Amino acid sequence: MKKRYALIGIIFVIVVTMLSSKQILRWMYPLYHYQTIQQNALAFNIDPLLVAAIVRVESKFKETNVSRAGAIGLMQLMPQTAEWIAGQSGLSYNTPEDLAQPEINIRLGCWYVSYLEKRFQGNRVAAIAAYNSGPSRVEAWLKDGTWDGTLEHLDQIPVGETRHFVQRVLYNYERYKEIYT
After folding, report:
1. What is the Cα–Cα distance from 179 to 129, expressed in whole angstroms?
2. Distance (Å, rounded) from C-alpha 1 to C-alpha 132?
3. How far apart are CA 85 and CA 6, in angstroms?
4. Alpha helices in the chain (DSSP H)
5. Of 20, 66, 99, 164, whose CB is crowded by the most CB atoms within 10 A?
6. pLDDT of 118-149, one tens digit each?
7. Which residues pair with 6 in a beta bridge?
8. pTM reported for the whole predicted model
9. What phi and psi, each to the nearest 5 degrees, are found at residue 71?
10. CB atoms within 10 A of CB 37
11. pLDDT at 9
12. Residues of 53-92 as b/e, b for ≥16 C-beta within 10 angstroms?
């Protein structure tokens, strides 16, 4: 019986050691397309690891992912949003098929994250919520007092999908910062 407990203890120590290893954590939290993410994020003055967290939550790094709502690609952009981004930014975008190309999708998505961070005066939590739910909706919540825009009061966000999206993005963002910085 003592040998069994000793063996369980040894296995536990090995598992804990492995899980704390950055190599194991990097395997669990990969950064595909990181060069493209980093280049575009830095061009638009946003944290590349935040973009990676959004990509992980939105598409799990699957380039051709299409949501039931019609959002496409790594950053799950709606074609109408991509058209609007291209019109505002001057970035190249022609057809919804473009959104399946990582370079185009990430470039448009990074511009949009940067735009949202500026629109919400650097409030990253509100910007992430707006990425999921739309900036007008989030502005209405802030204006009418439904939500105060803070992480501490995420439970005030009336849309469960948006509330969970913000939580998941911020969780993954923290993991990426721990592992890659």
Report:
1. 24
2. 53
3. 59
4. 2-20, 22-28, 34-43, 48-59, 79-89, 102-119, 124-133, 135-144, 160-180
5. 99
6. 999 999 999 999 999 999 999 999 999 999 99
7. none
8. 0.89
9. -70, 140
10. 25
11. 76
12. bbbbbbbeeebebeeeeebbbbbbbbbebbbbbbeebebe
Both tokens of 88, joined, read: 């505002």
Q: Which two tokens stand for residue 137?
A: 């909706």
Distance CA 66, CA 74 (A): 9
Q: How far apart are CA 13 and CA 19, in angstroms?
A: 10
Residue 166, both tokens? 């913000």
The tokens of 69 are what? 């709502």
Contact 98, 43 (CB under 8 A): no
What tokens does 91 get?
A: 């970035």
